Known about the structure:
globular; 351 residues; four-stranded antiparallel sheet
Amino acid sequence: MRPRLQTSDEGDDHLRRRRYAAAVRPVMIAGVVLPPVGWISQVAGVGWMVTHPTESSATVLDADLRVVTRFDVPVQAQRFMASVNQRHLAAVTLDELVVCDRLGQVLWRREHSIPCAGLPCAPNCHLDAQGVLWVYLPAGDELVAYDAATGAELDRARLDSSVGAAYFFPHPDGKRLGLHVAMGQDTPLSHLARLADGRIQGCNLPGEFLNGFTSTGDRYLALPHSDVPEIAIRDVSTGAIVVARGSTEIPGYNGDSDYSLMEAAALVSDDFVLVAVNTDDDGDFENHLLLSTRSLRWQADVDYGLDMTQNAIAATDGQGRWLTKGPDATVCLWQLPDRITDELPGQLDLW
């Protein structure tokens, strides 16, 4: 999508030229057409995992988007969430939790009954590097830790949420796990958990939607909810705001006066946050902007050369690469260029 050229009501030609020059064209590494796409996640040491709910299957892609394997997920319901690591595949539905080996052989299965009490009401799971399977269960809003190999329950903890949908973000130390729980119109909750001496320990993370950690793990991105329109970088140890901006007041961005930040963003790297803003009244399309992690100031528009539909930002590896998905089930892998803008050196106000 070509960047919008409108500036302020004064029609400042200088700003118009500045925005055009500050459009960055990302490098497309690869693209792959898959069955209808559900959820995409980054898998440390592997690449990416894509679920296909209508087919009850999943695809594992390597770091450069080549298909490693595609397998059927052995669950009855089409509505499922899944996780994969180098040894196991896990899937959870409202009715069951299943773990397989990488060949698809079922290792263990647990049945449960979660009433669909409104939306969102979605269990989720995550396989960590320590061989622990973490599961969020909306019935009772519990976080449960299992031994992924044997199915033995290690511990469970009650969360403060109420019938939500959880999304996981592994901490870079490989031991802690971040998650946020969305609850429809209610304010979402974010947490940081770990397993210590066989017990789940953790803390609440201030902010709205936890959306990822910097590579050192000392800061995290928190995205806004409708009740708190603020994007922020926060300190992990204290929860204190390092920098924050209102979702309709991105400094340096001269887009339409009525733009707003959508609930779609990603920490592309330690230096840049990729965010989506609405581009039409219906919300069917979005523009992607690069912001500095130090100031949350606009750095450049992202010009893919094609339209991005709503919620196109799918996943990132935190090292300058990210995935987008479109309605045609095409998944693309992008990388930041070496130079972000064509403007004078020193203009990027990263600090």
